[in-house]
Every structure is written in structure tokens, then in C-alpha cells.
Automatic annotation (TrEMBL):
<dbReference type="InterPro" id="IPR002197">
    <property type="entry name" value="HTH_Fis"/>
</dbReference>
<dbReference type="InterPro" id="IPR025944">
    <property type="entry name" value="Sigma_54_int_dom_CS"/>
</dbReference>
<dbReference type="InterPro" id="IPR011006">
    <property type="entry name" value="CheY-like_superfamily"/>
</dbReference>
<dbReference type="GO" id="GO:0005524">
    <property type="term" value="F:ATP binding"/>
</dbReference>
<dbReference type="InterPro" id="IPR009057">
    <property type="entry name" value="Homeodomain-like_sf"/>
</dbReference>
<dbReference type="InterPro" id="IPR025943">
    <property type="entry name" value="Sigma_54_int_dom_ATP-bd_2"/>
</dbReference>
<feature type="domain" description="Response regulatory">
    <location>
        <begin position="6"/>
        <end position="121"/>
    </location>
</feature>
<dbReference type="Pfam" id="PF02954">
    <property type="entry name" value="HTH_8"/>
</dbReference>
<feature type="modified residue" description="4-aspartylphosphate">
    <location>
        <position position="56"/>
    </location>
</feature>
<dbReference type="GO" id="GO:0043565">
    <property type="term" value="F:sequence-specific DNA binding"/>
</dbReference>
<protein>
    <recommendedName>
        <fullName>Sigma-54-dependent Fis family transcriptional regulator</fullName>
    </recommendedName>
</protein>
<dbReference type="Pfam" id="PF25601">
    <property type="entry name" value="AAA_lid_14"/>
</dbReference>
<feature type="domain" description="Sigma-54 factor interaction">
    <location>
        <begin position="146"/>
        <end position="375"/>
    </location>
</feature>
<keyword id="KW-0067">ATP-binding</keyword>
<dbReference type="InterPro" id="IPR058031">
    <property type="entry name" value="AAA_lid_NorR"/>
</dbReference>
<keyword id="KW-0547">Nucleotide-binding</keyword>
<dbReference type="GO" id="GO:0000160">
    <property type="term" value="P:phosphorelay signal transduction system"/>
</dbReference>
Length: 465
């Protein structure tokens, strides 16, 4: 069954909000309403799942046109239809130039509005297809995207083929940044379940009190704030694959809940009585030595043996020799394409420098380094050794009192966080989405940190950027 399109109606007239909500829900849309732009801005700081927005121009406080610009800057895929009681061709053209899909004048024919909404849905569908094509370049999933020719990576490919041909639970081990999610995704894409969902769960990011509701979902009214039924990660992955990343970070209490779901092959939503049968492939990953954590009593032995039916160990990047250069070339091509820049090449000296680095952050560090290099060398065709922007490892920075991070004195963590937020905004020219990606935090967390440290999005880009 197709999921309903999420629609947000923004209008200060309660009668108009009620009318639109009623007619859109009858047309099988999932509708929320807001009466002001400020209310929409509050929603944008948290979850903002809307694919279509009906936006009145004349709102109290921030205007609809200004709000349109904010929405399109942060949620470019969102389709916005402008509503106005003051028909003006110039206003309509201006709104469309600023990103609106279309505009309609009040009073309007509801049939006409629904037709525009349908057209917006179709346009969004085309955009999503295009986004999938772009993401295929951004996020490797196939064997050909497991870049490298080293014996170590060839052994990983062999293990992936073996794992993909079975339904056995897989445990992927390796240092942070070594590519565990890519391996998990490749297993899924080459398995019999490849046409079903691949659901990623960052176990280390789930608060203890939310484990059950996140993993197994909840019913409406199960707790304060549970205004509607919510499917959990396991149910979303049913008939497909669930990837439990950093499973070693789960508490013993949470491990018991996972173990029961795996053993019984069924779950119950929080606040519910219905038993939901699971037909699911489980892949887990960790950067810890789980055998050691079992001995320490920090990880359940029975869960470990249930997960470790098939183990794939990813080598750190510093053990993969020439793969460093092959990966760097791949990332260089990827990021120049994604940034719309002229294709760049490394000089032999630059490639020698890349190969000689240890890359303690593994593939992720190399990827981020090359992305940063592309951003800071726009317009260049040849990249020299000195152009490669390797960030100084934290342990070296803390051992150097006169480094730019501390400037001769130890700073509190809050100051370092604020500095990281500001500099990431500078390096991405105020693009919050890219800045959050490079800091490897969610956009919601990024906005929260900006608010916490009173940081404005409008930053001055350094002259030497």
C-alpha cells in the first residue's frame, strides 16, 4: 500500500485551515496545519517530513515569501504551492523564481487545487528518481564500488558473496570509518532480499529510554506525545534487511530486547497487544572486540553467538597499500562531480603523499579529506601535495599547546564545539546540510548547536577560502 503524501497547510485563517485539511484528507493526503510562519520554523528545527506545503502569502510575522525561501534552502525537494487573496502575476512569477511549484488565488476551486497538488506530487516523484541516481554515485552499494585491488579487500568481496547467498546473520567488524555500512548494503543488494527495504539503525544514537519505541514502534496513546501509531525499525525492515550499526554500544537491557526479537522472530509495539511476525535478515556491525566485551560482562554471550554466525572483518585503510590512491581518485571524481566543478587530478607527488599517510580515521577520513580538498581548491585542474587538506588528528592537536585549536590554552568542550560549527559553516558557505554531513552529525543536532551557541547562518567566508 502506497504511503500517504505528507502535506502541511500554513494559513492564519482557521476556517481555511479546516476546509483544506478536510478536503485534502478526503483525497488521501496526510495533513498537518500551522497558523504562522514561526510555527513552521519551529517544526523545521525538528522532524520535517512534509513533501507538499500549501502556503499563504499574507501571514502574521514572517511573510509567506520569506518562509518559502527558508523552506527551499533547507528542504529543496519540498513542493510549495503559494496561496494568495491578492492576485498578481508579478507576485506569482516571483514566488516561482524563489522555488514555489505553483501559485493559486483565493477564492479557488478545490478541484483545481487538488490538480495542482497532484502535479506537484508527480514532479516530486521525478526529483526523487533523479536523487536516487545521484545517491548511487554518493553511496557505493555494488561490488564495483568496493574500491581497491589489495588482497585484503578481495577477501572481503569473497566473504560478501558467501554471505549474500545465505540468510545467516552477519557480524561485520572493523575500525570506525572502514566502510562497514557499505559492506552491509552490498550484502543486501546482492541477496534475494535486494528489492525489499534496507533499514539502518545507529544503535549508539538511541537513548536508553527510547530503545523499544525506536526499534519496535508504538501505538497511539502509548505515552505522552504518542499522537499516532509509529512503526519501529524492525517492522519497517520486515521482509528485508535491518542493519544494526555499532551494536556494541547497546546497554545490556537493550541487548535483551534485541535478543528476544531475534529468537522469537516477532515483536509487539509499545502500548500494543498485536504480535507482529518478522521475516527479516539481520546484519550487525561493531568497532569493538565483542569477544572481549563478553568476557568483561558488557555484552551478552547468547546475543553474540546469535549475531556471529558469519563474521566479516574489515581491514583498516593503513593495511590496504595502493587502495588508498584508488579510493582517493574515486572520491576526487565523486566530489568534483557533486560540486559541479571541473574534473581535477592528483600529481604523482600528491598521490605519494596520500599513500604515505596512516589515515587513522580510515576510508571516512580519506573521503572527508578529499571533499575538503575539492572545496578549498575550486578551479584547479592539478592538485599538488600541499593542496591535500588533511586535518590534524586530535591527539596531535592536544599534544601541541600552540596549535590553532587551543592557541596556547586549554578550552572547554563547548568552545571547541562552537568553533567547529562556525568553521564548518564558513567552509560550506553557510550550507547547513553540507556542514552537518562533514561534522558527521544530523541536521537537527547542527541546528540545536547553532541555537545553543547563538551562531548565525550568515557567516563571512575567509578570503583565502
Amino acid at each position: 500500500m502506497k504511503n500517504k503524501t505528507k502535506v502541511l497547510v500554513v494559513d492564519d485563517d482557521p476556517a481555511m485551515r479546516s476546509l483544506l485539511s478536510f478536503r485534502l484528507e478526503n483525497a488521501q493526503y496526510d495533513v498537518d496545519v500551522c497558523e504562522s510562519g514561526e510555527e513552521v520554523q519551529q517544526k523545521m528545527q525538528h522532524e520535517f517530513p512534509y513533501e507538499l506545503i500549501l502556503l499563504d502569502v499574507m501571514l502574521p510575522g514572517i511573510s509567506g515569501v520569506d518562509l518559502l525561501e527558508e523552506i527551499k534552502k533547507e528542504y529543496s525537494q519540498c513542493q510549495v504551492i503559494i496561496m494568495t487573496a491578492y492576485p498578481s502575476v508579478r507576485m506569482g512569477v516571483s514566488a516561482i523564481r524563489k522555488g514555489a511549484f505553483d501559485f493559486i488565488c483565493k477564492p479557488f476551486d478545490i478541484v483545481q487545487l487538488l490538480k495542482i497538488a497532484k502535479n506537484a506530487e508527480e514532479n516530486l516523484s521525478l526529483k526523487k528518481e533523479n536523487q536516487v541516481l545521484r545517491q548511487n554515485l554518493q553511496q557505493p552499494t555494488g561490488f564495483s564500488d568496493l574500491i581497491g585491488k589489495s588482497p585484503q579487500i578481495n577477501a572481503v568481496r569473497k566473504s560478501i558473496r558467501q554471505a549474500a547467498n545465505s540468510r545467516a546473520t552477519v557480524l561485520i567488524t572493523g575500525e570506525s570509518g572502514s566502510g562497514k555500512e557499505i559492506v552491509a548494503n552490498t550484502i543486501h543488494k546482492n541477496s534475494l532480499l535486494h528489492q525489499s527495504a534496507f533499514v539502518v539503525v545507529n544503535c549508539g544514537a538511541i537513548p536508553e529510554n527510547l530503545v523499544e519505541s525506536e526499534l519496535f514502534g508504538y501505538e497511539k496513546g502509548a505515552f505522552t506525545g504518542a499522537n499516532k501509531q509509529q512503526l519501529g525499525k524492525f517492522e519497517k525492515a520486515n521482509n528485508g534487511t535491518i542493519f544494526l550499526d555499532e551494536i556494541g554500544e547497546l546497554s545490556l537491557v537493550a541487548q535483551v530486547k534485541i535478543l528476544r526479537a531475534l529468537q522469537e522472530k516477532e515483536i509487539t509495539r509499545v502500548g500494543g497487544n498485536e504480535t507482529i511476525k518478522l521475516n527479516i535478515r539481520v546484519i550487525a556491525a561493531t568497532n569493538k572486540n565483542l569477544e572481549e566485551t563478553v568476557r568483561q560482562g558488557l555484552f551478552r554471550e547468547d546475543l553474540y553467538y546469535r549475531l556471529a554466525l558469519f563474521i566479516i572483518n574489515l581491514p583498516p585503510l593503513n593495511q590496504r597499500g595502493e587502495d588508498k590512491v584508488l579510493l582517493a581518485r574515486f572520491f576526487l571524481e565523486k566530489h568534483t562531480f557533486m560540486e559541479g566543478q571541473t574534473q581535477m587530478q592528483f600529481t604523482p607527488g600528491a598521490e605519494k603523499f596520500i599513500k604515505e599517510q596512516d589515515w587513522p580515521g580510515n576510508v571516512r577520513q580519506l573521503d572527508n579529506c578529499i571533499y575538503r580538498t575539492v572545496l578549498m581548491n575550486a578551479g584547479k585542474e592539478k592538485l599538488e601535495m600541499e593542496d591535500i587538506k588533511v586535518l590534524t588528528p586530535m591527539e596531535k592537536m592536544s599534544a601541541t599547546p600552540n596549535s590553532s585549536l587551543f592557541n596556547g590554552r586549554i578550552l572547554p568542550m563547548s568552545s571547541l564545539e562552537a568553533q567547529a560549527i562556525r568553521e564548518s559553516l564558513q567552509l560550506t558557505q553557510g550550507n547547513v546540510k553540507k556542514a552537518a554531513q562533514q561534522l558527521q552529525i544530523s541536521r537537527v543536532t547542527f541546528y540545536r548547536k547553532m541555537k545553543e551557541y547563538n551562531i548565525e547562518k550568515k557567516v563571512t567566508v575567509p578570503e583565502n577560502f
